[in-house]
Amino acid sequence: MSAEAVLRATLVVFLAAMLQTVIVSSLVIGGGAPDVLLVVVVAVGLVRGSVPGAVFGFAGGLVVDLLTLDTMGITSLVLTLAGFWAGRYGETTGRDRRFAPVIAVGTVTLAAGLFGYVLHYMLGEEVAAHQALVTALMPAFALNLVLALPLCALVRRMVGEGERTESSREVEVLLG
């Protein structure tokens, strides 16, 4: 990634983290709130790859953790894995697919919600499973799907495409 692309991606992720923390997290619709930062991190992963997705996921999660003073590191870890998973999907099968952002955002939203719940549970924090996995996650899932295409298009325009690697058409297996 060029220095200019890194700076633009940093700005986009920082603004998404600030927007998520200050405004969007308080917009509860149907029992859940959209996660703009998660959608932006997934978009960065799809556009730039798994390593930049993980790095910017960690950075955005760290900003949210510092601003909300929640259990430090949970958001960072969840968004690091979300960016990495989205990047791997973009690198392997989803790069040129029209609805790759919707598929990636939907899958990562569900996985991130479940993983976040498991992390809170493992840390001994009291979290109601029905509240975390049904009441809040399902509306957030729907809202994130609505935001997927416009935010991914915005991130693609702001951050730019990553380097394309040609996939091998043939695999040769060498034994012993």
Summarize the structure.
Helices cover 72% and strands 0% of the residues.
Q: How would you describe this structure to a colleague?
A:
With 176 residues, the chain is mainly alpha-helical. The protein has a single domain, classed as Arp2/3 complex 21 kDa subunit ARPC3 (Orthogonal Bundle). The protein is 72% helix and 0% strand. The chain is built from seven helices and no strands. 38% of the residues are buried. The mean pLDDT is 85.
Helices, strands, pairings?
Blueprint lengths: L2 H20 L13 H13 L1 H19 L5 H21 L5 H23 L6 H7 L1 H23 L17
Helix pairs in contact: 1-2, 1-3, 2-3, 2-4, 2-5, 2-7, 3-4, 4-5, 5-7
Output the keywords:
single chain, 176 residues, mainly alpha, Arp2/3 complex 21 kDa subunit ARPC3, 72% helix
Outline the biggest β-sheet: none
In N-to-C order, the SSE pattern is: HHHHHHH
N→C terminal distance: 38 Å
CATH topology, anyone? Arp2/3 complex 21 kDa subunit ARPC3
Strand content: under 5%
Q: What Rg, in angstroms, do the CA atoms define? A: 17 Å
Q: Supply the CATH architecture.
A: Orthogonal Bundle
Report mean pLDDT, rounded to a whole number. 85
Instruction: Give the total of beta strands.
Output: 0
Apparent shape: globular
Number of helical regions: 7
Helicity, in percent?
A: over 70%
Number of domains: 1
